[in-house]
Design goal:
Radius of gyration: 21 Å
Shape: globular
Distance between the termini: 60 Å
Number of domains: 1
Strand order of the largest sheet: 1-2-3-6-5-4
Order of helices and strands: HEEEHEEEH
Number of strands: 6
């Protein structure tokens, strides 16, 4: 049986953390695929019930090379200065990347907004193509 003192345990823990960090944090969530130009067809929101501490869902619908993509972002009211719908306009072309689960939209400030894909909510009012994409 091996007995370690406090500094021995600390060295062991720090060593394990050093080896685990590149494995767990080294992967990027953003897909490495090409950026495509997509047209914002529609957006809408489910407003929060208690806007002081509530969360609102913002939904976006894009036409990315004749593929309709629908994604949403949950936004805590007190932490967001500008709502996502202020950042994107209907009919505007935006650069984005996507995989089977997420859509990353490049904003004017250079940061990417990650949207979770969801095709279950009938929320779009301005685009028949977005309404037809909802399952």
């Amino acid at each position: 049986m091996v007995v370690m003192n406090r500094s021995g345990w600390m060295v062991l823990v720090l060593s394990l953390a050093a080896f685990a960090a590149p494995v767990s944090f080294g992967k990027s969530e953003v897909p490495s695929g090409p950026v495509v130009q997509a047209v914002m067809l529609d957006h809408n929101e489910f407003p929060c019930a208690n806007c002081l501490f509530g969360v609102a869902d913002y939904y976006f619908c894009f036409d990315a090379s004749s593929k309709i993509l629908i994604g949403y972002d949950k936004v805590r009211t007190q932490t967001r200065r500008k709502v996502p719908t202020d950042l994107m306009e209907r009919g505007k072309t935006v650069p984005l990347r996507f995989d089977d689960k997420y859509i990353w939209v490049k904003q004017a400030n250079g940061k990417e907004l990650r949207l979770t894909q969801d095709y279950t909510k009938k929320i779009f009012l301005s685009s028949d193509r977005c309404q037809r994409a909802v399952k």
